[in-house]
Amino acid sequence: MKVLLKSDERQAEKFFIQRRNLDIGFSVFAKEPIEEGMVVACLNGEICGEKHVNNNETVAEYPAFYNFLNSLFFL
Known about the structure:
By secondary structure, the protein is α+β, with helices and mostly antiparallel strands. The chain has one domain (about 1-75). About 20% of the residues lie in helices and about 20% in strands. The chain has three helices and four strands; from the N terminus they run ααββαββ. A two-stranded antiparallel sheet has the order 1-2. The radius of gyration is 14 Å and the shape is elongated.
């Protein structure tokens, strides 16, 4: 579990998000080199673009969301 907590440290410093297409999610790029086998982030769920989120009624039932670098992520 400690490796997962460590992977979540300094996320905003390690990555930047650039939206290219509202249909397919977010383009995430590393700001620094990533070593082979290194855990960089933890995700439990589905990644989808803003267009899908706005058109999918079930997503509106998600309990929380937060703004990370001006992009919406739903939990």
